Amino acid sequence: MESFIKAGHIEPSVIVFDVFGTLVKIGERRSPYRKLMKWLKENGRQPKRDDAKFIMSHNLNLAELAKLLAVNISEQFLQEIEHDLDEELRSIVLYEDTLSTLEELKKLGFRLVLCSNLAMPYGKIVSSLLPPLDAYAWSYEVAAIKPESKIYQSLIEQLGCQSSEVLFIEDTALADFTGPTAFGMSARLINRKNGQTLAEVLNNIL
User: Fold this and answer.
1) Gap between the Cα atoms of 163 and 32, Å rounded
2) What is the CATH number of the domain that holds 193?
3) Per-residue pLDDT tens digits for 146-184
4) Fewer CB atoms near the end CB (10 Å): N or C, the chain?
C-alpha cells in the first residue's frame, strides 16, 4: 500500500494526528481494560463484537465503566485494574520529535488536530503532555470511533473546513488510512516501529 494518498489537488491546511504510535507511546503496558473484559467473561458475561467501541465511545472513567458493565464487580479487583491503569498512564511519553514537529507546523500556519480511538483517561493524559491544539476528536467525546464517518465529520465541523483540506498522519491502515481517504481526506502512514520520524512522513511540508 502506498503510504500517501492525496485528495484532489488541494494542499492541506489542516494536519490531523493520531495519538498512540504517532505522537506518544506507552512505556509499560498493563492493559487494564483487557483485564476487565477478561474478568467479565470469566464471570459469565459473553463478549460482544462492539465491546471495544463501547469502551472508547463512552465518556467514563474505568470504575464507572466497570460498574456499568458488571454490578457485582469486587472492590479488590477494581482497585487492581485502576492501579494498572495509573501505572500505564504514568508510563506514557512523547516521541522525541513530537513537540518540535508540532511547533514547526504551527509556525508554517497549519491548523493541528488530534483524532484518536481511546478510553477517556488516556485522552486526559495525552492532552496534558501536548500544547493546546486547534481541535480534538476524541472517540469518547464524539461517541464514535474511527473509521466511522461521524468522528471525521466532528473535526470538519469544529474547524469549518473541507475534507479535502485535511491531511491525516497515523499508524493503522484501516482506521487511519482507509477511513480518512474514504471521507475525502489525504492520509499518510507512519511506522514508528521501524524508526520512521514525523519529518520523514512530512518531507514535502517541513
Assistant:
1) 35
2) 3.40.50.1000
3) 999 999 999 999 999 999 999 999 998 776 688 899 999
4) N
